[in-house]
Design goal:
The complex is a heterodimer of chains A (113) and B (110). Chain A has 113 residues and is mainly β. Helices cover 0% and strands 53% of the residues of chain A. Chain A is built from no helices and 11 strands. In chain A, strands 2, 4, 5, 6, 9, 10 and 11 form a 7-stranded mixed β-sheet that branches. Chain A has a 4-stranded antiparallel β-sheet with strand order 1-3-8-7, with no helix packed on it. Chain B has strands at residues 4-6, 11-14, 19-25, 33-38, 45-50, 54-57, 60-65, 70-75, 84-91, 98-100, 104-109. The chains are: A mainly beta (113), B mainly beta (110). The interface between A and B is medium-sized, with 23 and 19 residues.
């Protein structure tokens, strides 16, 4: 059974802080994704990673960076958190050559005050 | 035009009713399609895949209309537990990018 875990379910940070969101998957999946989900806007892709040390910008990368040093771990970094980054952040992973099914982590609800 | 578009709802139907909603997509080259279900405050989970004309799984039927570029999800004999948001998903073929619709909210009332 695929398991995707995220470091925190709830997080409260102050404006200007550097924020790290961690995601770990245990199924040796090559692809990993970071989304944010906001009411009325659905899931929007921030960044994705094809494989270790490979990354590509999604639709809304501004204000974010990512790191993928190991296959199982994909980190999302908010360099200087702002209130408009308050959102639900979802990590997902997917095997290459498979059914395109993505497996999601439970999400991190981030509030920036 | 959005790449993947869904009616946001909410659809509010009585238990036992049949409900259907559509999802339109813009990329005519898309070959595979998915419906995910997302419960309140939970992560999305795969409900059904659609690779050809359609797929059926118990009370759920997904159909694909390539000519008009939409997929539909039909739920028969709806249960209270079907209340959720249903996300339409269209991968970009050959790429890792996956496009999510913004979701259709369904609420089943007793």
């Amino acid at each position: 059974d695929v398991k995707v875990t995220q470091s925190s379910r709830y997080l409260v940070k102050r404006t200007g802080e550097k924020v790290f969101l961690e995601c770990v998957q245990d199924m040796d999946h090559e692809n990993m994704f970071w989304y944010r989900q906001d009411p009325g806007l659905g899931l929007r892709l921030i960044y994705f990673s094809y494989d270790v040390k490979m990354k590509e910008k999604g639709d809304i990368p501004e204000g974010y960076s990512v790191s993928r040093e190991k296959k199982e771990r994909f980190s999302l970094i908010l360099e200087s958190a702002s209130t408009n980054q308050t959102s639900m952040y979802l990590c997902a992973s997917r095997v290459v050559g498979g059914s395109y099914e993505q497996y999601f982590g439970p999400g991190t609800r981030l509030t920036v005050t | 035009r959005k790449e993947v578009e869904q009616d946001p709802g909410p659809f509010n139907v009585p238990e036992g009713a049949t409900v259907a909603f559509n999802c339109t997509y813009s990329n005519s080259a898309s070959q595979s399609f998915f419906w995910y279900r997302q419960d309140c405050r939970k992560e999305p989970k795969l409900l059904m895949s659609v690779y050809s004309s359609g797929n059926e799984d118990g009370r759920f039927t997904a159909q694909l209309n390539r000519a008009s570029q939409y997929i539909s999800l039909l739920i028969r004999d709806s249960k209270l537990s079907d209340s959720a948001t249903y996300l339409c998903v269209v991968p970009e073929e050959g790429a890792s990018k996956i496009i999510f619709g913004s979701g259709t909210r369904l609420s089943i009332r007793p």
